[in-house]
Amino acid sequence: MKTILSRPVYGTLSPQAGKSHLLIADAEGASAILDLAKKAPEDFFTNAHIMFIPGRTGNSFQDLLKALKPAQYYEGPSVAAALPRLTWTLANAHMGLRMYLAGTEGLIGQMMQAAIEAGIDPASIQTEHRGSWARRVQCVHCKGVTENVTTQPVTCSHCGLLLLVRDHYSKRLAAFQGVCINAEDPTEIPQKEEIFR
Amino acid sequence: MSAGTNKLNVTVTEVVAVNELVKRFHFERTDGGNLPTFSGGAHVVVEMRDGDITRLNPYSLMSSPLATRDYTISVRRDDVGRGGSLFMHNRVKRGSEMVISYPVNLFSLDLRARKHLMIAGGIGITPFLAQTAQLASSGGNFELHYTCRSEALGSYTEVLRERYGSRVNLYYDEHNERIPLDRLLATQPLGTHIYVCGPAGMIKWVRDTAAAHGWPDDSVHYEHFAAPQPGTPFDVKLAVSGLEIRVGEQQSLLEAIEAAGVDPPYLCRGGVCGQCETNVISYDGTFKHNDHWLSDEEHCSGKKIMPCVSRFEGRSLVLER
Protein backbone atom coordinates (compact mmCIF):
# COMPACT_ATOMS: atom_id res chain seq x y z
CA MET A 1 0.00 0.00 0.00
CA LYS A 2 1.23 3.51 -0.81
CA THR A 3 1.83 5.62 2.26
CA ILE A 4 3.49 8.69 0.77
CA LEU A 5 3.24 9.92 -2.82
CA SER A 6 7.02 10.15 -3.26
CA ARG A 7 7.41 6.43 -2.48
CA PRO A 8 8.66 4.94 -5.79
CA VAL A 9 6.52 2.44 -7.64
CA TYR A 10 8.38 -0.17 -9.65
CA GLY A 11 7.15 -2.08 -12.69
CA THR A 12 8.17 -5.07 -14.73
CA LEU A 13 10.89 -4.81 -17.37
CA SER A 14 9.74 -5.32 -20.94
CA PRO A 15 11.61 -4.75 -24.21
CA GLN A 16 10.93 -1.29 -25.70
CA ALA A 17 11.34 0.02 -29.23
CA GLY A 18 14.71 1.75 -29.33
CA LYS A 19 18.03 2.14 -31.13
CA SER A 20 20.08 0.88 -28.17
CA HIS A 21 19.47 -0.58 -24.73
CA LEU A 22 21.29 -0.11 -21.45
CA LEU A 23 20.44 -2.71 -18.82
CA ILE A 24 21.74 -2.30 -15.27
CA ALA A 25 21.15 -4.72 -12.40
CA ASP A 26 22.47 -5.70 -9.01
CA ALA A 27 22.18 -9.15 -7.38
CA GLU A 28 18.75 -10.76 -8.00
CA GLY A 29 18.01 -7.93 -10.47
CA ALA A 30 19.85 -10.09 -13.02
CA SER A 31 16.84 -12.42 -13.10
CA ALA A 32 14.67 -9.52 -14.31
CA ILE A 33 17.03 -9.06 -17.29
CA LEU A 34 16.84 -12.80 -17.99
CA ASP A 35 13.03 -12.64 -17.88
CA LEU A 36 13.03 -9.63 -20.23
CA ALA A 37 15.26 -11.58 -22.64
CA LYS A 38 12.54 -14.24 -22.99
CA LYS A 39 10.19 -11.58 -24.42
CA ALA A 40 12.78 -9.67 -26.46
CA PRO A 41 13.07 -9.68 -30.27
CA GLU A 42 15.98 -11.71 -31.65
CA ASP A 43 18.34 -8.79 -32.35
CA PHE A 44 17.60 -6.97 -29.09
CA PHE A 45 20.98 -7.67 -27.44
CA THR A 46 23.08 -6.77 -30.51
CA ASN A 47 22.66 -3.12 -29.45
CA ALA A 48 22.61 -3.75 -25.72
CA HIS A 49 25.00 -2.95 -22.89
CA ILE A 50 24.65 -4.87 -19.63
CA MET A 51 26.13 -3.54 -16.39
CA PHE A 52 25.97 -5.97 -13.47
CA ILE A 53 26.87 -5.71 -9.79
CA PRO A 54 26.63 -9.26 -8.38
CA GLY A 55 26.57 -8.33 -4.66
CA ARG A 56 25.26 -11.15 -2.48
CA THR A 57 24.47 -13.43 -5.44
CA GLY A 58 28.16 -14.19 -6.05
CA ASN A 59 28.77 -16.09 -9.29
CA SER A 60 25.25 -17.35 -9.93
CA PHE A 61 24.14 -14.98 -12.78
CA GLN A 62 27.24 -14.01 -14.77
CA ASP A 63 27.25 -16.88 -17.26
CA LEU A 64 23.53 -16.54 -17.93
CA LEU A 65 23.87 -12.80 -18.61
CA LYS A 66 26.88 -13.27 -20.88
CA ALA A 67 24.99 -15.95 -22.80
CA LEU A 68 22.55 -13.22 -23.94
CA LYS A 69 25.51 -11.94 -26.04
CA PRO A 70 25.16 -8.23 -25.32
CA ALA A 71 27.36 -5.89 -27.38
CA GLN A 72 29.01 -4.82 -24.11
CA TYR A 73 29.14 -6.51 -20.72
CA TYR A 74 30.50 -4.94 -17.53
CA GLU A 75 30.75 -6.32 -14.04
CA GLY A 76 31.68 -4.23 -11.01
CA PRO A 77 31.92 -4.46 -7.25
CA SER A 78 29.52 -1.65 -6.28
CA VAL A 79 27.14 1.05 -7.48
CA ALA A 80 29.79 3.67 -6.69
CA ALA A 81 32.31 1.85 -8.87
CA ALA A 82 29.83 1.55 -11.74
CA LEU A 83 28.66 5.18 -11.74
CA PRO A 84 31.63 6.70 -13.63
CA ARG A 85 31.13 4.15 -16.39
CA LEU A 86 27.41 5.01 -16.55
CA THR A 87 28.16 8.74 -16.72
CA TRP A 88 30.62 8.18 -19.55
CA THR A 89 28.21 5.88 -21.40
CA LEU A 90 25.38 8.42 -21.18
CA ALA A 91 27.61 11.33 -22.25
CA ASN A 92 28.17 9.51 -25.54
CA ALA A 93 24.62 8.22 -25.96
CA HIS A 94 21.91 9.46 -28.33
CA MET A 95 18.15 9.75 -28.19
CA GLY A 96 16.66 6.34 -28.84
CA LEU A 97 18.53 4.80 -25.90
CA ARG A 98 16.24 2.91 -23.52
CA MET A 99 17.29 2.13 -19.96
CA TYR A 100 16.26 -0.81 -17.81
CA LEU A 101 17.11 -0.82 -14.08
CA ALA A 102 16.54 -3.89 -11.92
CA GLY A 103 17.44 -4.93 -8.40
CA THR A 104 17.58 -3.04 -5.12
CA GLU A 105 16.05 0.37 -4.52
CA GLY A 106 19.54 1.75 -3.89
CA LEU A 107 20.75 0.71 -7.33
CA ILE A 108 17.59 1.83 -9.13
CA GLY A 109 17.57 5.20 -7.36
CA GLN A 110 21.23 6.06 -7.89
CA MET A 111 21.33 4.96 -11.53
CA MET A 112 18.10 6.83 -12.21
CA GLN A 113 19.55 9.95 -10.59
CA ALA A 114 22.70 9.78 -12.77
CA ALA A 115 20.58 9.18 -15.87
CA ILE A 116 18.28 12.16 -15.23
CA GLU A 117 21.38 14.28 -14.55
CA ALA A 118 22.60 13.26 -18.02
CA GLY A 119 19.37 14.59 -19.52
CA ILE A 120 17.55 11.32 -20.19
CA ASP A 121 13.77 11.52 -20.04
CA PRO A 122 12.43 9.46 -17.09
CA ALA A 123 9.90 7.99 -19.55
CA SER A 124 12.84 6.26 -21.28
CA ILE A 125 13.65 4.31 -18.10
CA GLN A 126 11.97 1.12 -16.90
CA THR A 127 12.47 -0.20 -13.40
CA GLU A 128 11.81 -3.48 -11.63
CA HIS A 129 12.51 -4.30 -8.00
CA ARG A 130 14.09 -7.68 -7.23
CA GLY A 131 15.92 -8.93 -4.17
CA SER A 132 16.58 -7.00 -1.00
CA TRP A 133 14.36 -4.11 0.17
CA ALA A 134 17.34 -2.50 1.96
CA ARG A 135 17.15 1.30 1.76
CA ARG A 136 19.54 4.20 1.26
CA VAL A 137 18.70 6.70 3.99
CA GLN A 138 19.70 10.33 4.29
CA CYS A 139 19.85 11.73 7.82
CA VAL A 140 17.99 15.07 7.73
CA HIS A 141 20.18 16.35 10.57
CA CYS A 142 23.76 15.74 9.35
CA LYS A 143 22.87 14.98 5.66
CA GLY A 144 25.03 11.84 5.68
CA VAL A 145 23.71 8.86 3.69
CA THR A 146 23.61 5.42 5.29
CA GLU A 147 23.60 2.50 2.81
CA ASN A 148 21.85 -0.87 3.08
CA VAL A 149 19.49 0.02 5.88
CA THR A 150 17.34 -2.94 6.90
CA THR A 151 16.18 -1.92 10.38
CA GLN A 152 13.63 0.48 11.83
CA PRO A 153 14.90 2.63 13.52
CA VAL A 154 18.49 2.83 12.32
CA THR A 155 21.59 4.49 13.74
CA CYS A 156 22.98 7.17 11.37
CA SER A 157 26.40 5.93 10.28
CA HIS A 158 27.66 9.54 10.23
CA CYS A 159 26.34 11.43 13.30
CA GLY A 160 25.05 8.52 15.39
CA LEU A 161 21.49 9.79 15.90
CA LEU A 162 18.79 7.15 16.03
CA LEU A 163 16.66 7.67 12.89
CA LEU A 164 13.08 6.78 11.99
CA VAL A 165 13.18 5.73 8.31
CA ARG A 166 10.25 7.38 6.57
CA ASP A 167 8.62 6.39 3.24
CA HIS A 168 9.38 9.95 2.10
CA TYR A 169 11.73 9.47 -0.87
CA SER A 170 13.90 12.00 -2.68
CA LYS A 171 14.62 11.38 -6.37
CA ARG A 172 17.29 14.09 -6.27
CA LEU A 173 19.16 12.31 -3.48
CA ALA A 174 18.07 8.77 -4.39
CA ALA A 175 17.43 8.20 -0.69
CA PHE A 176 14.71 7.86 1.92
CA GLN A 177 14.41 10.40 4.69
CA GLY A 178 15.66 9.54 8.19
CA VAL A 179 14.46 11.70 11.11
CA CYS A 180 15.64 11.50 14.74
CA ILE A 181 13.17 9.22 16.54
CA ASN A 182 13.94 10.31 20.12
CA ALA A 183 14.74 14.03 19.92
CA GLU A 184 12.53 14.82 22.95
CA ASP A 185 14.13 12.22 25.16
CA PRO A 186 17.40 10.71 23.90
CA THR A 187 17.34 8.13 26.70
CA GLU A 188 14.27 6.54 25.13
CA ILE A 189 15.65 3.87 22.79
CA PRO A 190 13.01 1.98 20.77
CA GLN A 191 13.97 -1.53 19.84
CA LYS A 192 15.34 -2.02 16.30
CA GLU A 193 13.35 -4.34 14.08
CA GLU A 194 14.59 -5.73 10.79
CA ILE A 195 11.81 -4.76 8.39
CA PHE A 196 13.49 -3.80 5.06
CA ARG A 197 14.57 -7.26 3.95
CA MET B 1 -16.06 31.06 -20.15
CA SER B 2 -12.39 30.08 -20.11
CA ALA B 3 -8.91 31.59 -20.14
CA GLY B 4 -8.76 31.85 -23.91
CA THR B 5 -12.00 33.75 -24.16
CA ASN B 6 -10.72 36.94 -22.56
CA LYS B 7 -10.79 39.46 -25.38
CA LEU B 8 -8.42 42.15 -26.61
CA ASN B 9 -9.41 45.07 -28.85
CA VAL B 10 -6.68 45.57 -31.42
CA THR B 11 -5.96 47.68 -34.46
CA VAL B 12 -4.21 46.34 -37.55
CA THR B 13 -1.08 48.47 -37.95
CA GLU B 14 0.46 46.74 -40.94
CA VAL B 15 -0.43 44.15 -43.57
CA VAL B 16 2.49 42.68 -45.53
CA ALA B 17 2.28 40.33 -48.50
CA VAL B 18 5.00 37.78 -47.72
CA ASN B 19 4.52 35.87 -50.96
CA GLU B 20 1.78 34.82 -53.36
CA LEU B 21 -0.12 32.87 -50.66
CA VAL B 22 0.83 34.34 -47.29
CA LYS B 23 0.05 37.69 -45.69
CA ARG B 24 1.36 38.95 -42.37
CA PHE B 25 -0.81 41.04 -40.02
CA HIS B 26 0.44 43.24 -37.19
CA PHE B 27 -1.90 44.01 -34.28
CA GLU B 28 -1.49 46.66 -31.62
CA ARG B 29 -3.75 47.42 -28.67
CA THR B 30 -6.39 49.90 -29.76
CA ASP B 31 -6.10 51.63 -26.36
CA GLY B 32 -2.27 51.68 -26.51
CA GLY B 33 0.29 50.00 -24.29
CA ASN B 34 1.79 46.53 -24.39
CA LEU B 35 -0.11 43.36 -25.18
CA PRO B 36 -0.10 40.47 -22.67
CA THR B 37 3.06 38.40 -22.31
CA PHE B 38 3.11 35.09 -24.15
CA SER B 39 5.50 32.22 -24.73
CA GLY B 40 6.69 30.80 -28.05
CA GLY B 41 4.14 28.44 -29.57
CA ALA B 42 1.10 30.38 -28.32
CA HIS B 43 -1.84 31.22 -30.55
CA VAL B 44 -4.65 33.76 -30.50
CA VAL B 45 -8.18 33.28 -31.74
CA VAL B 46 -9.05 36.02 -34.23
CA GLU B 47 -12.70 37.06 -34.54
CA MET B 48 -13.79 37.81 -38.07
CA ARG B 49 -17.12 39.58 -38.33
CA ASP B 50 -18.35 39.06 -41.82
CA GLY B 51 -21.93 40.32 -42.03
CA ASP B 52 -24.11 37.84 -40.11
CA ILE B 53 -21.30 35.33 -39.80
CA THR B 54 -18.69 35.46 -37.07
CA ARG B 55 -15.72 33.18 -37.65
CA LEU B 56 -13.16 32.51 -34.95
CA ASN B 57 -9.89 31.09 -36.25
CA PRO B 58 -6.75 30.29 -34.26
CA TYR B 59 -3.41 31.62 -35.54
CA SER B 60 0.04 31.08 -34.01
CA LEU B 61 1.82 34.20 -32.83
CA MET B 62 5.05 34.54 -34.80
CA SER B 63 6.48 37.70 -33.29
CA SER B 64 9.13 37.57 -30.57
CA PRO B 65 7.72 36.92 -27.08
CA LEU B 66 10.23 39.53 -25.93
CA ALA B 67 8.48 42.36 -27.80
CA THR B 68 4.78 42.66 -26.96
CA ARG B 69 4.19 46.11 -28.43
CA ASP B 70 2.53 44.20 -31.25
CA TYR B 71 1.50 40.67 -32.12
CA THR B 72 2.02 39.32 -35.61
CA ILE B 73 0.39 36.40 -37.36
CA SER B 74 0.78 34.98 -40.85
CA VAL B 75 -2.21 33.70 -42.75
CA ARG B 76 -1.99 31.37 -45.70
CA ARG B 77 -4.79 31.89 -48.20
CA ASP B 78 -6.99 28.82 -48.53
CA ASP B 79 -9.24 29.23 -51.57
CA VAL B 80 -11.37 26.16 -50.77
CA GLY B 81 -11.71 26.60 -46.98
CA ARG B 82 -14.60 28.15 -45.08
CA GLY B 83 -13.52 31.66 -45.92
CA GLY B 84 -11.62 32.73 -42.79
CA SER B 85 -8.30 33.12 -44.56
CA LEU B 86 -9.98 34.80 -47.55
CA PHE B 87 -11.62 37.26 -45.16
CA MET B 88 -8.21 38.06 -43.65
CA HIS B 89 -6.60 38.42 -47.07
CA ASN B 90 -9.32 40.43 -48.80
CA ARG B 91 -11.07 42.42 -46.09
CA VAL B 92 -8.58 43.19 -43.35
CA LYS B 93 -6.57 46.34 -44.01
CA ARG B 94 -4.25 48.62 -42.09
CA GLY B 95 -6.42 50.49 -39.60
CA SER B 96 -9.05 47.73 -39.29
CA GLU B 97 -10.23 47.22 -35.71
CA MET B 98 -10.52 43.61 -34.62
CA VAL B 99 -11.07 41.47 -31.54
CA ILE B 100 -8.61 38.72 -30.64
CA SER B 101 -8.39 36.38 -27.64
CA TYR B 102 -5.65 36.42 -25.04
CA PRO B 103 -2.80 34.15 -26.12
CA VAL B 104 -3.06 30.46 -25.23
CA ASN B 105 -0.15 28.05 -25.59
CA LEU B 106 -0.85 24.42 -26.47
CA PHE B 107 2.55 23.99 -28.15
CA SER B 108 5.00 25.29 -25.60
CA LEU B 109 8.70 24.54 -25.38
CA ASP B 110 9.74 22.09 -22.68
CA LEU B 111 12.50 24.17 -21.14
CA ARG B 112 13.94 21.13 -19.35
CA ALA B 113 15.15 19.88 -22.74
CA ARG B 114 18.89 19.99 -23.44
CA LYS B 115 18.20 20.62 -27.10
CA HIS B 116 15.17 21.55 -29.19
CA LEU B 117 14.87 19.92 -32.62
CA MET B 118 12.21 21.72 -34.67
CA ILE B 119 10.55 20.39 -37.79
CA ALA B 120 8.32 22.70 -39.82
CA GLY B 121 6.30 22.19 -42.99
CA GLY B 122 4.97 25.18 -44.97
CA ILE B 123 2.96 27.69 -42.92
CA GLY B 124 3.68 25.47 -39.88
CA ILE B 125 6.80 27.64 -39.53
CA THR B 126 4.91 30.39 -37.64
CA PRO B 127 5.12 29.08 -34.03
CA PHE B 128 8.82 28.36 -34.56
CA LEU B 129 9.51 32.01 -35.42
CA ALA B 130 8.41 32.91 -31.89
CA GLN B 131 10.06 29.88 -30.27
CA THR B 132 13.44 30.45 -31.93
CA ALA B 133 13.36 34.13 -30.87
CA GLN B 134 12.59 33.05 -27.31
CA LEU B 135 15.37 30.44 -27.23
CA ALA B 136 17.95 32.65 -28.94
CA SER B 137 17.44 35.30 -26.27
CA SER B 138 18.43 32.87 -23.53
CA GLY B 139 21.18 30.97 -25.34
CA GLY B 140 18.94 27.93 -25.90
CA ASN B 141 20.17 25.10 -28.07
CA PHE B 142 17.95 24.57 -31.12
CA GLU B 143 18.07 23.37 -34.68
CA LEU B 144 15.33 24.01 -37.25
CA HIS B 145 14.50 21.86 -40.26
CA TYR B 146 12.01 23.57 -42.52
CA THR B 147 10.47 22.12 -45.65
CA CYS B 148 8.67 24.26 -48.25
CA ARG B 149 7.09 23.62 -51.63
CA SER B 150 9.32 26.04 -53.52
CA GLU B 151 11.76 28.87 -52.92
CA ALA B 152 9.11 31.35 -54.06
CA LEU B 153 6.58 30.04 -51.51
CA GLY B 154 9.00 29.58 -48.60
CA SER B 155 7.86 32.10 -45.99
CA TYR B 156 10.58 33.65 -43.79
CA THR B 157 13.35 31.37 -45.07
CA GLU B 158 15.68 34.31 -45.56
CA VAL B 159 15.02 36.01 -42.26
CA LEU B 160 15.56 32.71 -40.40
CA ARG B 161 18.81 32.04 -42.26
CA GLU B 162 19.97 35.56 -41.52
CA ARG B 163 19.14 35.30 -37.81
CA TYR B 164 20.35 31.79 -37.06
CA GLY B 165 22.71 30.75 -39.88
CA SER B 166 23.51 27.05 -40.02
CA ARG B 167 21.01 26.23 -37.27
CA VAL B 168 18.37 26.61 -40.00
CA ASN B 169 18.15 23.84 -42.59
CA LEU B 170 15.89 24.35 -45.60
CA TYR B 171 14.40 21.70 -47.89
CA TYR B 172 12.49 22.43 -51.10
CA ASP B 173 10.03 20.00 -52.71
CA GLU B 174 10.78 21.53 -56.12
CA HIS B 175 14.41 20.36 -55.76
CA ASN B 176 13.30 16.95 -54.42
CA GLU B 177 14.87 17.68 -51.05
CA ARG B 178 13.54 15.81 -48.02
CA ILE B 179 14.29 16.07 -44.30
CA PRO B 180 16.71 13.19 -43.47
CA LEU B 181 14.56 12.21 -40.51
CA ASP B 182 16.14 8.85 -39.70
CA ARG B 183 19.63 10.33 -39.54
CA LEU B 184 18.42 13.33 -37.54
CA LEU B 185 16.64 11.19 -34.96
CA ALA B 186 19.57 8.79 -34.60
CA THR B 187 22.14 11.49 -33.86
CA GLN B 188 20.52 13.68 -31.19
CA PRO B 189 22.07 13.94 -27.72
CA LEU B 190 20.13 12.67 -24.71
CA GLY B 191 17.58 15.20 -23.48
CA THR B 192 16.59 16.39 -26.97
CA HIS B 193 12.92 17.22 -27.52
CA ILE B 194 11.37 17.30 -30.97
CA TYR B 195 8.66 19.74 -32.10
CA VAL B 196 6.71 19.40 -35.31
CA CYS B 197 4.16 21.69 -36.92
CA GLY B 198 2.90 21.25 -40.45
CA PRO B 199 0.52 19.14 -42.53
CA ALA B 200 -1.16 16.15 -40.81
CA GLY B 201 0.86 13.66 -42.88
CA MET B 202 4.12 15.20 -41.79
CA ILE B 203 3.15 15.18 -38.11
CA LYS B 204 2.23 11.50 -38.36
CA TRP B 205 5.50 10.71 -40.16
CA VAL B 206 7.59 12.39 -37.47
CA ARG B 207 5.61 10.91 -34.55
CA ASP B 208 5.69 7.38 -35.97
CA THR B 209 9.39 7.52 -36.84
CA ALA B 210 10.33 8.96 -33.43
CA ALA B 211 8.36 6.22 -31.68
CA ALA B 212 10.09 3.53 -33.76
CA HIS B 213 13.45 5.06 -32.81
CA GLY B 214 12.58 4.77 -29.13
CA TRP B 215 11.86 8.44 -28.37
CA PRO B 216 9.48 8.64 -25.38
CA ASP B 217 6.13 10.34 -26.08
CA ASP B 218 6.94 13.10 -23.58
CA SER B 219 9.78 14.33 -25.79
CA VAL B 220 7.68 14.56 -28.96
CA HIS B 221 5.56 17.72 -29.31
CA TYR B 222 3.26 18.55 -32.18
CA GLU B 223 0.66 21.09 -33.11
CA HIS B 224 -2.04 20.29 -35.53
CA PHE B 225 -4.92 22.65 -35.82
CA ALA B 226 -7.56 20.89 -37.83
CA ALA B 227 -9.33 23.81 -39.47
CA PRO B 228 -13.08 23.16 -39.34
CA GLN B 229 -14.19 21.66 -42.63
CA PRO B 230 -17.28 22.85 -44.49
CA GLY B 231 -20.01 20.25 -44.94
CA THR B 232 -23.69 19.50 -45.39
CA PRO B 233 -25.93 21.66 -43.15
CA PHE B 234 -27.51 19.77 -40.22
CA ASP B 235 -29.97 20.42 -37.36
CA VAL B 236 -29.13 20.09 -33.69
CA LYS B 237 -31.22 20.26 -30.55
CA LEU B 238 -29.49 21.80 -27.52
CA ALA B 239 -31.22 20.08 -24.61
CA VAL B 240 -29.97 22.27 -21.74
CA SER B 241 -30.75 25.60 -23.41
CA GLY B 242 -33.89 24.26 -25.09
CA LEU B 243 -32.85 25.57 -28.51
CA GLU B 244 -32.98 24.09 -31.97
CA ILE B 245 -30.27 25.30 -34.31
CA ARG B 246 -29.09 24.73 -37.86
CA VAL B 247 -25.39 24.42 -38.64
CA GLY B 248 -24.67 26.05 -42.01
CA GLU B 249 -22.45 24.66 -44.71
CA GLN B 250 -19.59 27.08 -43.95
CA GLN B 251 -20.18 27.16 -40.20
CA SER B 252 -18.72 24.94 -37.49
CA LEU B 253 -21.03 23.36 -34.92
CA LEU B 254 -19.33 25.45 -32.22
CA GLU B 255 -19.92 28.65 -34.19
CA ALA B 256 -23.58 27.72 -34.68
CA ILE B 257 -23.99 27.09 -30.93
CA GLU B 258 -22.39 30.47 -30.21
CA ALA B 259 -24.55 32.21 -32.85
CA ALA B 260 -27.61 30.92 -30.93
CA GLY B 261 -26.40 32.79 -27.85
CA VAL B 262 -24.98 29.80 -25.94
CA ASP B 263 -21.40 30.30 -24.73
CA PRO B 264 -19.62 26.95 -24.33
CA PRO B 265 -15.99 26.79 -23.18
CA TYR B 266 -13.27 26.62 -25.83
CA LEU B 267 -9.55 27.27 -26.21
CA CYS B 268 -8.01 26.09 -29.47
CA ARG B 269 -10.97 25.77 -31.85
CA GLY B 270 -8.85 23.22 -33.68
CA GLY B 271 -9.78 19.86 -32.14
CA VAL B 272 -6.77 19.46 -29.85
CA CYS B 273 -7.33 21.06 -26.43
CA GLY B 274 -10.47 19.26 -25.28
CA GLN B 275 -12.22 22.30 -23.78
CA CYS B 276 -15.37 22.18 -25.91
CA GLU B 277 -15.99 18.42 -25.48
CA THR B 278 -19.76 17.96 -25.52
CA ASN B 279 -21.94 15.03 -24.45
CA VAL B 280 -24.35 13.56 -26.98
CA ILE B 281 -27.77 12.73 -25.52
CA SER B 282 -29.18 10.98 -28.57
CA TYR B 283 -28.59 10.77 -32.29
CA ASP B 284 -29.78 9.12 -35.48
CA GLY B 285 -27.13 9.43 -38.15
CA THR B 286 -23.36 9.51 -38.63
CA PHE B 287 -20.72 11.59 -36.86
CA LYS B 288 -17.94 13.23 -38.90
CA HIS B 289 -15.25 13.37 -36.24
CA ASN B 290 -12.25 15.55 -37.18
CA ASP B 291 -10.60 16.11 -33.78
CA HIS B 292 -7.36 14.84 -32.24
CA TRP B 293 -8.75 14.85 -28.71
CA LEU B 294 -11.24 11.96 -28.34
CA SER B 295 -9.98 8.38 -28.47
CA ASP B 296 -11.00 5.99 -31.23
CA GLU B 297 -13.35 4.27 -28.77
CA GLU B 298 -14.98 7.59 -27.89
CA HIS B 299 -15.39 8.38 -31.60
CA CYS B 300 -17.23 5.08 -32.08
CA SER B 301 -19.27 5.37 -28.87
CA GLY B 302 -21.63 8.08 -30.16
CA LYS B 303 -21.48 9.71 -26.72
CA LYS B 304 -19.18 12.68 -27.33
CA ILE B 305 -18.39 15.25 -29.99
CA MET B 306 -15.87 18.11 -30.33
CA PRO B 307 -18.07 20.84 -31.86
CA CYS B 308 -15.14 23.03 -32.93
CA VAL B 309 -14.16 20.76 -35.85
CA SER B 310 -16.59 17.83 -36.04
CA ARG B 311 -19.87 17.57 -37.90
CA PHE B 312 -22.89 15.30 -38.22
CA GLU B 313 -25.00 13.88 -41.00
CA GLY B 314 -28.39 12.31 -40.34
CA ARG B 315 -31.89 12.76 -39.01
CA SER B 316 -31.41 14.04 -35.45
CA LEU B 317 -28.76 15.05 -32.95
CA VAL B 318 -29.41 16.12 -29.35
CA LEU B 319 -26.51 17.63 -27.36
CA GLU B 320 -26.14 18.35 -23.66
CA ARG B 321 -25.60 22.09 -24.14
Automatic annotation (TrEMBL), chain A:
Keywords: 2Fe-2S, Flavoprotein, Iron, Iron-sulfur, Metal-binding, Oxidoreductase. Residues 3-125 form the Dimethylamine monooxygenase subunit DmmA-like N-terminal domain. Pfam families: DmmA-like_C (PF22289), DmmA-like_N (PF22290). It comes from the Bacteria. InterPro entries: DmmA-like_C, DmmA-like_N. Residues 136-179 form the Dimethylamine monooxygenase subunit DmmA-like C-terminal domain. This is Uncharacterized protein. It comes from Aminobacter ciceronei.
UniProtKB/TrEMBL annotation, chain B:
It comes from the Bacteria. Its cofactor is FMN. Pfam families: DmmA-like_N, Fer2. One of its GO terms (molecular function) is dioxygenase activity. Residues 5-110 form the FAD-binding FR-type domain. Residues 234-321 form the 2Fe-2S ferredoxin-type domain. Keywords: 2Fe-2S, Dioxygenase, Flavoprotein, FMN, Iron, Iron-sulfur, Metal-binding, Oxidoreductase. This is Dioxygenase subunit beta.
